[in-house]
Amino acid sequence: MTRYRRDPSWRAPERADGRGAVVIAGSPLRLFRVSTGGAQVLALAETGEQPPTDTVTRMLDRFVEAGALHPVHEAGPYSPADVTVVVPAFGEIPPLHAGVRIIVVDDGSAPPLQLPPDSPPSVTLTRVEANAGPAAARNAGLDQVTTPLVAFLDTDVQVQDGWLDALLPHFADPRVVLVAPRVCSATGASGLSRYEATHSPLDLGAHPARVAAGTRVSYVPAAALVCRTDVLRAAGGFDADMRVGEDVDLVWRLTELGHRCRYEPESTVHHRPRPTWPALFRQRMGYGRSAAPLAQRHPGALAPVRMSGWSAGVWALVAARRPMWALALAAGTTAALVRKLRHVPPTESVRLATLGHLAAGRQLANAVTRVWWPLALVVAVFVPKSRALLIAAVAAPPGADALRSRSVAPLRDAPLRWADDMAYATGVWQGVLREREPGPLTPGFTTWPRRGDG
Q1: How far apart are the first and last CA of the chain?
Q2: Per-residue pLDDT tens for 77-106?
Q3: pLDDT band with cut points at 50, 70 and 90 for residue 12
Q4: What are phi and psi of 430, to 5 degrees?
Q5: What residue spans of 201-245 are helical by DSSP H?
Q6: Above 80 in pLDDT, residue 290?
Q7: Which residues of 389-427 are buried (b: 16+ CB within 10 A; e: fewer)?
Q8: What does each C-alpha distance from 240 to 243, 244, 246 come to in angstroms?
Q9: Which residues contact 445 (CB under 8 A, 6 or more apart)?
Q10: Measuring CA to CA, which residue among 75, 106, 78, 71 is closest to residue 92?
Q11: pLDDT, tens only, 349-382
Q12: SS3 310
């Protein structure tokens, strides 16, 4: 039996014509018109009692594909016995768990790694003579896998017994080829550990998601994930030319081939953070340097902001110190959306337009303090009137987070977050200049709201 969880974005106001409901949900947000019967099916789907007809299955599938519903499978065709765990290792052997096949790949360590004498018999060690990076090491392990599923774990990831239990049922859907758990930062007493606990780029949150470029969860880290062995081999495995970003590239290649990838936070593993601040900032710079190669492989997927042209116009007028014009344009686009969405209650259309413009502003503020900060700094030096806007862009995100969380932690962490973002952006610019690829700096524009079929 399969039941479905609603995405946190889910809203279902009554249709203005009284015939059913409108569902606004997913990532990016989509709008579905649902009949009265369809609304009843959606209610039943939360308990798994939906009628097992092809029409119902297709309708629910559209919601899943949009990221509006998330399937919960009671059981799947695989057990841990169908999984081989591949661990790329360099310089250290991680703790090894009994009960599952494990292939440790020594990625050219000097001296060569050796398994501890008390290692379970299900653990084998293979070696790549020359260090080629984690992607190549994972591929070397993949070549030796004989089970239908392969899991990848990094040496700095700690798992508990049963970590596969919430992941394997997703493979009941034959279109799902990759599932990843939540990767939380391991707890510690240091300031760095406390910072990583809430700002680690590996921790993608507490809500399940489909994984695809341009969505709420656009990637999952290869620190911990499970894949179908045959599909991964057919896709060519990890791109061994990439030492960083190879996991993002893999997910995007799989989704471009029409496969599904899922993020399932019901399973949680823990990642050991970098030991020092310089090491953390070097890590972030490495992530940034991977953006340009990824943009070359997946054009348009690395846009630092993605918004409608109307929202861009509103904020351009704000930047030009024309607040009344910006307000007029925002009001005009809101009125146009109310007329366009005649089946949506006007109050809901106003809410959507307002939140859309505010979200666009948040994206722009994040981009200014992240990948665009070198440009913003130059503008601030030569255009004094722009400095107030730059200060607002820097202060607004942590201020909004503090209000939303009712905590001073976002304000306390703000200087570290700015340093974190600057390290990432430095890597982005290094990659952009080296690869001559502007994709990670180029904004993207969309039409909104997207229509879905209910």
Answers
A1: 22
A2: 999 999 999 999 999 888 787 778 999 999
A3: confident
A4: -60, -45
A5: 229-234
A6: yes
A7: bbeebbebbbeebbeeeeeeebeebbebbbebbbbbbbb
A8: 7, 10, 8
A9: 306, 307, 308, 309, 312
A10: 106
A11: 999 999 999 999 999 999 998 999 999 899 889 9
A12: helix
Q: What is the pairing mode between strands 260-271 and 176-185?
A: parallel
Q: Report the interhelical angle of 191-199 vs 277-289 (nearest 10°).
A: 30
Which amino acid, one-letter code, is at 437? Answer: E
Record the pTM: 0.92
> Tokens 């409608």 appear where?
308
| pLDDT bracket for residue 18 (50, 70, 90) | low
Tokens matching residue 83: 């999984």
For 230, the token pair is 């045959």
Identify whether the C-beta of residue 211 lies closer than 8 Å to the C-beta of residue 107.
no
Token output for 454: 């209910």
Domain segments of the chain as ranges: 2-73, 80-273, 306-452
Q: Comparing C-alpha atoms, which of 352, 219, 359, 353 is closest to residue 291?
A: 219
Domain 80-273 classification at class level = alpha beta
